[in-house]
UniProtKB/TrEMBL annotation:
<feature type="signal peptide">
    <location>
        <begin position="1"/>
        <end position="22"/>
    </location>
</feature>
<dbReference type="InterPro" id="IPR008929">
    <property type="entry name" value="Chondroitin_lyas"/>
</dbReference>
<keyword id="KW-0456">Lyase</keyword>
<dbReference type="InterPro" id="IPR008397">
    <property type="entry name" value="Alginate_lyase_dom"/>
</dbReference>
<dbReference type="GO" id="GO:0042597">
    <property type="term" value="C:periplasmic space"/>
</dbReference>
<dbReference type="InterPro" id="IPR013783">
    <property type="entry name" value="Ig-like_fold"/>
</dbReference>
<dbReference type="Pfam" id="PF05426">
    <property type="entry name" value="Alginate_lyase"/>
</dbReference>
<feature type="domain" description="Alginate lyase">
    <location>
        <begin position="90"/>
        <end position="293"/>
    </location>
</feature>
<dbReference type="InterPro" id="IPR003961">
    <property type="entry name" value="FN3_dom"/>
</dbReference>
<protein>
    <recommendedName>
        <fullName>Alginate lyase domain-containing protein</fullName>
    </recommendedName>
</protein>
<keyword id="KW-0732">Signal</keyword>
<dbReference type="InterPro" id="IPR036116">
    <property type="entry name" value="FN3_sf"/>
</dbReference>
<dbReference type="GO" id="GO:0016829">
    <property type="term" value="F:lyase activity"/>
</dbReference>
Length: 670
């Protein structure tokens, strides 16, 4: 008997349904770093020579790349970082595109618009590839400027041709987006943050709600260092990179600030998420860089590579041009206190460029200075649909959380048992940004949508989210190994997301998080690894074992990070293991590798990878695949495993922190 495949049976339905749902929500344009009201505010302040905006404008105007006489350094068909290929040329042109687009929007001089269009058309027609070990970082920085330029030019009647617009959309989605779509969970958090904001911006420019939500959901519930609460790690405001150096720390929180400004223009209060955690990160960082002492918590990051014991003095006091935006939002928009951020902003005023290269936009005095009108408290005619809806299930309930809609006074919760609905209202007048659905049936997958209300006006429904109330039948999960912390296993209707600790299975005693079903006789299990995992110390696989005892007989196929002389680039390979008797050693029966592209690039598991384990009588056979259609045998052996077995995926972190691994296309055949 072939049991239902959780992805293959639902993916097409989910994709079509979620795509249709996305069409119900409309983006605000221009709506990245600069909204229509921002452009009007800057334009009026410059015309009236209001300070400090006018001084900020003069700094901006005098910059070399703000000139309509700027000479392009590109385009190039390939750019790259580590090794460098045209990075400086691309970043300079990206800065010029963004700054000329803004000069056009502020001055109305079409020569600036023409220059921005020239740059956008040139690069979008020629650039085909972003390469190198650090490609994801490069694609997260300079292209953000390009997308901002495109957003401004497209939505300010600058005279950009429809062909140019469509070419830019295609370029951003087919050249830039594939490089950043899975973010950078293997790196320090500023890499993740750069990718998040660029995916968000592409989503807005291309009117693609799925892309926008992908980034927004990773910001609040991702598994890398760039998730907000993984980056600003505690209520004190300590940042994941505070012990590394102050330059990267300031950059990382600034990149997350850019995400919040984009979300704000789309009607979402990402700034306020997790109790204004972003502000706490800025206050902590500004406080330390202004010469004050700060508390510090010993930390090991999500990758397991970066451990810090004290705040770094490297680049301490070298303030970057990142504080005006945060000061003006929390103090001028919201009327909150941000004393250290305010001091840092004052020291830099008027802010200059966000050097080096295209690291950050900078120029916050021009971009963000505003009167203390507390515009956030103004009535919102119709609130935006809530963002980043997240559902987390257990056998007793499903917990929902979301990013607040600006101006919303209450929320309505809708639920369905099928992705396509019908959806039924299950709760109204919810005051906060969370709800616990206790009326659930264990092992049932539910789908949710949330709408916001303000003064009787209702938003569109949120982008949907699914969760199973406990794992769907026949799945169960538990840690294997004495004293091991219990991990988690979630299923959203398409993907299994597993988190856990442990060293793995290649020893006398196993230690990992195991998710299984009962396999009474012959059968097979197939899974697809979904990139990317949160640590390169992670090992994961699929197994069949007689019990949950840590020394039980088992057969397993693992993807394993072999040691190399480069911590950043393990030698990923597969291991077929067997423990024939209780208490015996898990022996390596077969080994393949190292894995290569498209599964592995530069030592990182950046692509999909399939695993299959087959039991037929006493014979265990393992298979691996790079595409799910062409399979290679990874080994076989005759086993003494007998009776009903526990079969399923296993994950281990290989370090002191937990890891997160995701699987889809999970297929059971009996």
């Amino acid at each position: 008997m072939k049991l239902k495949n959780p992805l293959l049976a639902l993916f097409i339905l989910l994709y079509g349904y979620f795509s249709a749902a996305a069409q119900e929500q409309v983006f605000v344009h221009p709506g990245l770093l600069h909204a229509k009201e921002d452009l009007e505010r800057m334009r009026n302040a410059v015309a009236e020579k209001e300070e400090p905006v006018f001084s900020g404008f003069m700094v901006f105007k005098q910059n070399a790349v703000s000139q309509f006489t700027y000479q392009l350094k590109g385009p190039l068909p390939v750019v790259g970082r580590n090794p460098t290929v045209g990075q400086g040329d691309y970043d300079a042109d990206a800065n010029a595109a963004h700054q000329n687009a803004l000069m056009w929007a502020i001055t109305g001089d079409k020569r600036y618009a023409a220059k921005a269009i020239e740059i956008l058309d040139a690069w979008s027609s020629v650039l085909k590839s972003v390469t190198g070990r650090d490609a994801v970082l490069m694609a997260g920085l300079g292209p953000f400027k390009m997308v901002n330029a495109a957003e401004l030019i497209r939505y300010t009647n600058a005279g950009w041709s429809q062909a140019g617009i469509l070419q830019a959309e295609k370029h951003f989605k087919e050249v830039i987006y594939p490089v950043v779509k899975d973010f950078a969970p293997f790196a320090n958090g500023n890499w993740d943050a750069a990718a998040i904001k660029t995916v968000m911006s592409i989503g807005v420019f291309c009117n693609d709600r799925a892309l926008f939500e992908r980034a927004l959901r990773y910001y609040v519930n991702g598994w890398g260092n760039g998730m907000l609460t993984n980056y600003v790690i505690n209520e004190a405001g300590q940042v994941q990179e505070s012990g590394r150096d102050q330059a990267h720390t300031q950059l990382g929180i600034a990149l997350l600030g850019d995400c919040s400004e984009i979300a704000w223009h789309q009607g979402l209060d990402l700034y306020a998420y997790a109790g204004n955690r972003l502000l706490k990160g800025f206050e902590y960082t500004a406080r330390y860089n202004l010469g004050n002492e700060v508390p510090f918590e010993h930390t090991l990051d999500r990758t397991g590579k970066y451990e810090h014991f004290k705040p770094s003095t490297q680049a301490r006091g070298n303030l970057r041009a990142v504080y005006e935006q945060i000061y003006n939002h929390y103090v001028r928009r919201k009327g909150m206190a941000a004393p250290f951020t305010g001091q840092a902003a004052a020291k830099l005023r008027p802010e200059g460029p966000g050097n080096p290269g295209a690291d950050h936009p900078g120029y916050g005095t021009l971009f963000y200075s505003r009167p203390a009108e507390h515009s956030a408290d103004k009535p919102v005619l119709t609130p935006a649909a809530p963002g980043a809806l997240f559902a987390e299930g257990s056998a007793e309930h499903v917990k929902l959380s979301w990013v607040a809609s600006i101006g919303a006074t209450s929320y309505t919760i809708k639920r369905a048992v099928k992705a396509a609905g019908p959806f039924t209202v299950i709760a109204k007048n919810i005051a906060g940004e969370g709800y616990t659905d206790k009326q659930v049936k264990s092992s049932t997958t539910y789908y949710y949508r949330v709408s916001a209300s303000a003064d009787g006006r209702n938003s569109a429904d949120s982008y949907p989210a699914g969760a199973s109330a406990g794992l769907p039948s026949p799945w169960k999960t538990a840690p294997v190994g004495a004293g091991l912390f219990a991990g988690t296993a979630q299923y959203d209707g398409a993907v299994f997301s597993l988190s856990g600790w442990g060293a793995g299975a290649d020893s006398l005693k196993d230690a990992f998080q195991f998710t299984w079903f009962d396999l009474a006789g012959d059968g097979s299990l197939t899974v697809r690894y979904v990139p990317q995992l949160s640590s390169q110390f992670t090992r994961f696989g699929i197994m069949m074992r007689e019990s949950l005892h840590d020394n039980a007989p088992q057969a397993s196929l693992w993807v394993y990070p072999g040691k190399t002389d480069q911590l950043e680039a393990p030698a990923w390979h597969t291991r077929l293991l067997s423990r024939e008797a209780t208490g015996g050693v898990a022996k390596i029966i077969g080994q393949t590798g190292p894995l290569s592209a498209p599964a592995v690039t530069y030592g990182r598991l950046t692509g999909y990878y399939w695993l299959r384990l087959v039991r037929k009588g006493a014979l265990i056979t393992a298979f691996i695949s790079y595409n799910g259609t062409k399979w290679r045998e990874a080994g076989r052996f005759t086993t003494h495993l007998s009776g009903s077995l526990l079969a399923g995926p296993a994950i281990a972190s290989g370090m002191k922190n937990s890891t997160t691994v995701r699987f889809d296309q999970v297929t059971i055949e009996k």
